[in-house]
Amino acid sequence: MPDSALPAEGSADFSCAAVVVAGGASRRLNHVPKASLSDGTSTLLDYALEAVAAASPRVVVGPESLPLPPEVLRTREDPPFSGPAAAIHAGLECIAAACERSQAPMPDWCLILGVDTPRIAPAVQQLIAAARGVEQTCAERAADFSPTDSEATAGSEAPTDSEASERSESSAGFWGVAEGIYQPLVGIYRFEAIRSVFSTGTTDASVRSFLRRLNPAAVQMSAADTADVDTWEQAQALGYTTSLWSSY
């Protein structure tokens, strides 16, 4: 369960939460917590939270020892170290529980982000822009609709189940693609859709296997923006060589 209060409401014209996955075992870093790695100014955790600063609520999925601002929620996958799919499930349920407690509406969208991509902020803005574009298109279609439109289409052939499904799935979310490589922990999805998909069977499961059910649209991103820290070589290349705490 989270140990922080629900933060203040976010942007009035765009409802978006965020899940930051930050509880991995960091095996290729000799179990040094990725979140703790610093460039001398800020940690990877700091930069991840900054990248999703526009989201509300924000939840970090990781151990209790992670230093978090008071407005950021915290939870943990169950059992610990059972993989990022389980972490996403825990984060989504944490957001839902916090909204229910405060009687706040559920967010329309949710950003999914790993803690190990320090230059991800421009990519996050791309994702938000893509989701905003969907919202704007829906609003424009609603504004353009009139009773005569309904009368004109009343006698037309109804869409098939597959066509209706495709239309629904096409706006279920977006994930990043850099140099042909899909980024499962760089995405934005409709909250209720992704919560439903990650509702069961996530322990030690593949994140991509769940996300594919949402048929997300690809957002082309710079490889520099999505560069992550999985090894000490990558940490050195990105300038994150100092750990501010040694273990979880």
What does it look like?
The protein has 248 residues and is an alpha/beta fold. It contains 9 helices and 9 strands. It has helices spanning 44-51, 84-102, 121-144, 147-154, 161-170, 191-197, 207-211, 223-226, 232-238; strands at residues 16-21, 37-38, 58-61, 73-75, 109-114, 173-178, 181-190, 217-220, 242-243. The strands form 2 sheets. Strands 4-3-1-5-7-6-8 form a 7-stranded mixed sheet, sandwiched between helices. A two-stranded antiparallel sheet has the order 2-9. Helix 1 packs parallel to helix 3. The two termini are 18 Å apart. The model is unreliable at 1-11 and 150-169 (pLDDT under 50).
Topology:
Blueprint: E1 16-21, E2 37-38, H1 44-51, E3 58-61, E4 73-75, H2 84-102, E5 109-114, H3 121-144, H4 147-154, H5 161-170, E6 173-178, E7 181-190, H6 191-197, H7 207-211, E8 217-220, H8 223-226, H9 232-238, E9 242-243
Helix pairs in contact: 1-3
